[in-house]
Amino acid sequence: MTIKVLIVDDSALVRKILSEIFGKDREIQVVGTAVDPYAARERIKQLNPDVITLDVEMPRMDGITFLENLMRLRPMPVVMVSSLTQRGAEVTLRALELGAVDFVAKPRIDIAGSLADYADELIEKVKAAARARVRAPAAAPPAAGLQQPGIGVEAGLGASAAACSVLRTTDRIVAVGASTGGTEAIRELLAALPADAAAMVISQHIPAAFSRPFAERMNRCSAMSVCEAQNGQYILPGHVYIAPGDRHLLVERDGARYRCFLSGAEPVNRHRPSVDVLFRSLARNVGPNATGVILTGMGDDGARGLKEMLEAGACTIAQDEASSVVWGMPGAAVRLGAAQQVLPLQQIAAELLRKHTTHQAMQLARTAT
């Protein structure tokens, strides 16, 4: 089946580049272009596209306002085209909250060889978007910066917290891997966990410019303390550590404690951070005291690492197909036999809490005897 694409961008050069990229793939047809959301609205009515690529910043109406209206009135797959800047990160993360399936960077033609890699990424994401499950949000989440009362904390560990960290440790660690649709799945998961939940390490496929704003955004909606992971940082209960973009996150043992280790090694499964890298480090160093969770995402990164965690005695969970935006990574894990449980996203937090409570009870029983 041919995927009909509408390109919405105020730059004639960007429209030309994207059209040429799509024109080289026989499964994709550019049915039209639009210079702003007002023109896009008419093109959607006329052309009924399967996927829209949407610029973030445009005249007359910005991409976010248009996306919010579109997802309310006519939900459909949207891939945002964003600049890799702090401003671009905040706006793009907001777009993902509002229902955009994924995002790509603005095309760059000043770096030799970069356009070929960019074309592969763009085509892959548009094809995944065409298969994605798109739903109108029941209620739009609050914009970034609106602090929920009583639960906000600083994203990083301050000097006093770092000093106290040597006195604290964690018995259980939850490792989470995600890609397409993952930023919102992670937000929903973290929002359902209490402040004293087991420590969590996360590998989300995300650019380097986006990981810190993403961690700060998750910190504002979670009772746990969320930060972008730092090399050598102790892993503590009630804390969440998100892999920096362009760095693998691994968990290493340091005596009775665990630390974050960041690596600039080659991408694995074309990704850095890679979910497989994170999961394999827990299989080696945490074993049965770990739980692995693989969430929505395209591709198969994390499936083999989750299998290694299972073989090391860890508990393993995969998000089910119905609640996934793209059932690529979790589906690959299920087919590999790596997932003990396949659960809707809405049930995963409760299952993690049940496992944590059971583990604590067992620890108390062993102490009593």
TrEMBL record:
The active site is at residues 179, 205, 301. Its EC number is 3.1.1.61, 3.5.1.44. Residues 4-121 form the Response regulatory domain. It is found in: Cytoplasm. GO terms for biological process: chemotaxis. Pfam families: CheB_methylest (PF01339), Response_reg (PF00072). Keywords: Chemotaxis, Cytoplasm, Hydrolase, Phosphoprotein. This is Protein-glutamate methylesterase/protein-glutamine glutaminase. The gene is cheB.
